[in-house]
């Protein structure tokens, strides 16, 4: 079973976080983003295996927690450009789904692209490592500071915000997922999209080539009449061409 949540990065209230006041009344993510996680650690194994290239993995640092994934919407260019409000939603959901972490303040939530997750046969169920884990640094930071540490980023969560967690829980949907079929469907859809884009590019290139040929022909046609009736003198200045009678008179 997989739990799905919908995040628009906003709530209907103003939230006080320690000494900061943040207004989450306006949705910051449009269209809303999908956040999901396995119901148990066995399900996490399938999520690790069948993740999508646009998925981003979240986890409480150094504590047991749910493996939470954000599926990047098409309008977010990369995992490094996730809006702060959406990062906050993901971080709060991870904290809320950590037995120990939910009771603590000042947590570090780490996140990284799905394809940076490393799973080997000797690891326990639900355990992961990173392909680039030598670029991780940790420490204490002020409210919701995001750190860029290469392929692994850290978000600091000062405390649980119930308004955010409750909003996300209201969108929760639990369903069975055929991971293999979803992967096949995704690959087919991506292939169809690439073919459609390639066809559109081919049409656009053909139209551009046709337009260039038309412009070239038009310029060539115009040049036929640019200097009609004129010839150049010894100073390369255009002068009126002589008629047949004038040429005969010059010859005589």
From TrEMBL:
Listed InterPro entries: Jlp2/Ccd25, NFACT_RNA-bd
UniProt keyword terms in alphabetical order: Coiled coil
UniProt superkingdom: Eukaryota
Positions of the UniProt region annotated as Disordered: 227-252
Coiled-coil parts of chain: 189-216
Residue intervals of the NFACT RNA-binding domain: 33-131
Pfam family, one: NFACT-R_1
Family: Belongs to the CCDC25 family.
Record's protein name: NFACT RNA-binding domain-containing protein
Taxonomic source organism: Rhizoctonia solani
């Amino acid at each position: 079973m997989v739990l799905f949540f919908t995040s628009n990065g906003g709530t209907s209230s103003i939230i006080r976080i320690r000494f900061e006041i943040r207004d989450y009344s306006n949705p910051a993510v449009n269209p809303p983003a999908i956040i999901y996680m396995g119901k148990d650690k066995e399900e996490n194994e399938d999520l690790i295996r069948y993740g999508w290239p646009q998925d981003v993995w979240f986890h409480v640092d150094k504590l047991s927690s749910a493996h939470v994934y954000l599926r990047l919407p098409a309008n977010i260019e990369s995992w490094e450009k996730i809006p702060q409000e959406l990062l906050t939603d993901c971080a709060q959901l991870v904290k809320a789904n950590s037995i120990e972490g939910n009771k603590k303040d000042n947590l570090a939530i780490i996140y990284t692209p799905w394809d940076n997750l490393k799973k080997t046969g000797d690891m326990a169920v639900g355990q992961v490592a990173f392909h680039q884990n030598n670029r991780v640094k940790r420490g204490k930071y002020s409210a919701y500071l995001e750190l860029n540490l290469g392929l692994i980023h850290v978000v600091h969560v000062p405390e649980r915000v119930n308004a955010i967690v409750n909003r996300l829980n209201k969108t929760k949907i639990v369903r069975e997922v055929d991971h293999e079929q979803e992967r096949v469907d995704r690959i087919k859809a991506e292939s169809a999209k690439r073919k459609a884009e390639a066809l559109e590019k081919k049409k656009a290139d053909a139209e551009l080539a046709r337009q260039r040929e038309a412009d070239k022909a038009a310029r060539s046609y115009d040049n036929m009449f640019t200097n009609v009736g004129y010839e150049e003198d010894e100073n390369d200045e255009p002068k009126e061409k002589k008629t047949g009678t004038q040429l005969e008179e010059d010859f005589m």
